UniProtKB/TrEMBL annotation:
It holds the Pfam family Methyltransf_25. CDD domains: AdoMet_MTases (cd02440). GO terms for biological process: methylation. This is Class I SAM-dependent methyltransferase. Keywords: Methyltransferase, S-adenosyl-L-methionine, Transferase. InterPro entries: Methyltransf_25, SAM-dependent_MTases_sf. GO terms for molecular function: methyltransferase activity. Residues 43-140 form the Methyltransferase domain. It comes from the Bacteria.
Length: 255
């Protein structure tokens, strides 16, 4: 089963999407800093989830394409951004981040909140980078985050969250090498007062940030750098402490 495809999408939308809302202004600063054209910039939000980041870009006048493989997540994004979808400023596509193509190239691509850690292996991550490369205009910017080992260890935990409309139980394990699993079980209250149960399992992979940067540098990307979480326009020296590392890369001019 594809993760995020159950009613967990509703809980994600309500309770887990704050990350995207908080990070969106930082990503926008980075893009604005880089955008030298007077045309409206086009952003690809890869693994867009329920569309919080996309909505922020749209409110700021950007055009947005969102891609996600979960229809349940896309449905939330479509509902959130419906005025922009209707006006033609936004579109959302169901596709695999490792294997997609766009009709029109974009100025920027962002993939946020551990989305790329969900790819099953390194080969898939490299295929994703190639797809983003093809989707971007020359000199277009790509920014994404990856979990550090410290961040992966955060999955070694059990939690129970209870809200009036739902209860969520998460149980995770990390092997301290490259793989973490999390079982998510939930109960969502229906209109008739009864609860619907769902269950799904997510797997995340740890990717070595140095290998990732080397791969990008060897495949036509330039100015590849780590960025400070608090200010993505500022380079970081080495992998910063914390649960995530941010990587920024500019697409080279070759096609
Ligand atoms: C943790 S959520 C992040 C969502 C969003 N970027 C945010 O910041 O809230 C991960 C998202 O990645 C999507 N995803 C995972 N693997 C994917 C793949 N191979 N292709 C497309 N989407 C994928 C999931 O469906 C989910 O919506």
């Amino acid at each position: 089963m594809i993760p995020y495809s159950t009613r967990f999408a509703e809980i994600y939308d309500e309770d887990w999407s704050g990350f995207a809302s908080r990070k969106a202004p930082k990503v926008l600063d980075l893009f604005r800093n880089h955008h030298r054209s007077s045309d409206k910039a086009v952003v690809l939000d890869l693994c867009c989830g329920t569309g919080q980041m996309a909505e922020h870009f749209l409110e700021q006048g950007f055009l947005v394409t969102g891609i996600d493989q979960s229809q349940a997540m896309l449905d939330r994004a479509l509902a959130r951004c419906s005025p922009y979808v209707e006006s033609g400023s936004a579109n959302f596509l169901k596709a695999n981040a490792c294997d997609f193509s766009l009709d029109t190239s974009v100025d920027f691509c962002v993939s946020a909140y551990d989305a790329l850690n969900h790819l099953p292996d390194q080969e898939s991550l490299w295929r994703c980078f190639d797809a983003v490369f093809r989707a971007l205009k020359p000199h277009g910017l790509f920014v994404f985050d990856l979990k550090t080992k410290q961040g992966m260890r955060g999955w070694n935990s059990i939690s129970i969250t209870e809200k009036p409309q739902w209860t969520l139980i998460t149980r995770g394990t990390y092997d301290d090498r490259d793989t973490a699993h999390r079982r998510v079980t939930g109960f969502v209250r229906d209109d008739d007062g009864r609860f619907t149960r769902f269950e799904e399992t997510m797997t995340e992979r740890w990717f070595d940030p140095e290998s990732v940067c080397q791969r990008l540098e060897g495949t036509g990307w330039r100015e590849v750098r780590y960025a400070l979480s608090a200010d993505l326009t500022r380079p970081a020296t080495g992998v910063p402490d914390g649960s995530r590392v941010y990587i920024v890369a500019e697409r080279g001019a070759r096609s």
